[in-house]
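The aim of this short unit is practical: by the end, you should be able to scan a pair of folded records and say something sensible about each. We start with the first protein, listed as its amino acid sequence and then its structure tokens.
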Amino acid sequence: MKRRVVVTGLGLVTPLGIGVEKSWDNLCSGVSGIDLITRFDPDEYAVKIAGEVKDYTPEDYFEKKQAKHLALFVQYGLIAALMAVKDSGFEVVEENCNRVGVITGCGMGGLPTIAKQAQVCVERGPRRITPFFIPMCIPNMASGQISMALKAKGANMTHTTACAAGTHAVGEAFRHIMYGSSDVIITGGTEAVICPLGIAGFSSMKALSKRNDSPQLASRPFDKDRDGFVMSEGAGMLVLEEYEHAVARGADIYAEVCGYGLSSDAYHIAAPPEDGEGGARAMKLALQDSGLLPEDIDYINAHGTSTPLNDKCETQAIKTVFGDHARALAISSSKSMTGHLLGAAGGIESVFTALSLAHQIAPPTINLMEPSPECDLDYVPNVARKMNIRAAISNSFGFGGTNAVVAMKRFEK
């Protein structure tokens, strides 16, 4: 028998702010978190903009020695996870710890650490490499550190599936609880690769926006003048919990997770097929898993990267799945404000989707001045919309042709 799964806690560290309230308020107000890069001097780089987490001081959250040995993506993930657990009111204790898991997503892990230690190896020799190098950079260290901090002894894993990683993590956590192997799972995504190597690498692929003179206008999903995504950093974490378990302890519930679909394009390392067929199949599978009909969905948190191919193909995929109902949907891309958090994107967008259902608000797609001719649906342009949202899906599509979709619905007893 399948068990119901609900969202009882949320945590966010994003370019829009540290904390759920600040990030959500800025998202609904249409505030952009994109600006000129301050992490390093970008003068020699074609791309000089990114979505950095602002006003962040590691020592505010960690002891100095601990912060030195935790890569930034681990720090963000740990902060967001502890925030979500505190929000949920759930406590991991000896009696329940074996039924509490941690499943996270991360696309690239400690890339800045790898780049820095490679330089040390070349310039100062192999004996100068820190013994913390490997534990700092492997992608699963966020889930490992979260589980150690909470003493959670259940499932502990990380999905490294590019830009779909956070959504895969949420979907797999949902299944673990639904089929009975866990009662509570802390899940989501984290990423922090704003560094010279990261910016140079994505820039060389022609994937990033070069709108350096107007950073806040650079991420413009579905707009005819979009020219690439904006790399960002941060983390989004959720506490997923079996329904009866949550009710028994009197937990507040944001939304119910009800479906999960995943697929592969089997097409290209970085581009979706023109018809968005793989993404469409993932959406269909999520709907089938949820038991919802296409017309039951009122809102889509789109992958919406602001790249010419993704936005066109995602629009086509939505039309394929929803038919005539596609034009009744509210669709928005939070990446217009946060930028693209890579492996963390699905985590924060799952948080935003849960909040959309809890508050009955569809956040806007900002910078949508003139939609592309092939992007002709309702993308909630520029202003948030108070509306009836019965159910929603969140899309994530990654390099390598990997697709993930999570379905949620408004919580009802």
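Turning to the second protein, read its sequence before its tokens, just as you did above.
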Amino acid sequence: MLVGLATFEYLPVRVGGLAEAVTALGEALSKEDEVYVFMPSHGLTKTVPPELDLKKYADFRITVGDRIYPISVFQAWRHGVRIFLFSNEVMDHPEVYHPRKIFIQKLVHFTKALPGLINLLLKKEERKPGVMHINDWHCVFAGALVKKYFRIPFIYTIHRICRERMSVQELNEVNLGELVDNRYLEGEMFNIEVFGAHQCDYLTTVSHSYLDEEWPSFFSSFQGKVTYVWNGTDARFWDPALLKSAALPREERRKKALADNGLADGYFFFNVGRLDAAQKGIDVLLDAFDQVMRGYAEGAEKVRDKMRLVLLGSGDPLLEAEARDLEKRYPENVKAILKYLGREATREFYGAADFCLIPSNFEPFGLVQLEAMCMGCIPIGTRVGGINDTVHSVDDHPEKATGLLVPRRDAAALARAMVKMALMLHQEPQRIDLMRRNGRIHVIENFNWDRAAARYRMVYQNMGTLKLPFVSYAEPY
């Protein structure tokens, strides 16, 4: 089968977890199927990274409003996947999603360009994808047009519901009025995700818990063609054997990593990702750590002097300021690194830290907990979405525990959890060691990309005929 993956992120273009997920899925699928990736260039054709040997494939034109725009298509092969990048004055903008005006223009140009390239593939190579896999709402319109004009069925994967809309006037102005359907109108606004969910042949999301959480408000409307496919992670990359100090005991790696960041040895808590309150709950994290340091959590007086927190990431300027303030108040306990240092640096932190804090308010799937477990860093997360699906909490599964789960938006509960795990590290190191071993085995066996690819392949091959059953958390698929 020839599988087309339409996306706005694919490595080396990375904004968040979407890039990791689609890249890993494409490479896993390519072991049995041909895989083509379709994406705006985001400037890659201007500053070509060394891992991409780009060659021009074709030139054509699209009409947007009353203007004609040239499109150049470049192609490259990466790890068995054929990548097509669309390049012009709009799609070469280096920022993927910002500013919003440019992003919407990119969406429109990509929507027009993808059918143009499918037409050229038919003319030049006499072939087309057997299925188009649309990743998130940015690519929904492109999938709908490809289905309409080339009869290519499409699967729509919602990595996160965004409830995005465009006005009917906007769609008419860019010659996409043919997509407007009164069923998806909310006043003068057109609901893109509802449109995509109706138009697609199969609808998926990335975890059982997220499907359940959003069932009443969204997914229940599409019963009969909706299921979930868990993401995976690449345990070949997230491997302690690849650490710079792999030969050292974990305690020595921890001591060194903390010293490199100006902190003495202690109980090492780590957080990586976007500093965001709405989804990631970073405000809850900062509050929880402050509660521990003030002695508000039971038992905090036994551990607070040795509590260490390293934050790695950037985002909301207000949260960045709050992180800096926490660092100033507790300079011997907190280090805020307000930037993204790359996957290799993140791997080094995972390989040294005792615990990874993941206080999300909602998380469709999340990759951090899997990456952390692969590296022996025990996740302390919330009972939401993919975190709930992938982490065995020590309170629920003492023998096969891989982490600890707490209620969302509950700083006091998170503070208690941090104290509990710090005390366990001090008093019951053998239990901590068991959780570390459990975590890596659990991820490798249950959340690998070959398994996800096999599940998606079932969807592709039976789209529109076989309705896949819901698979409960207790029943591995």
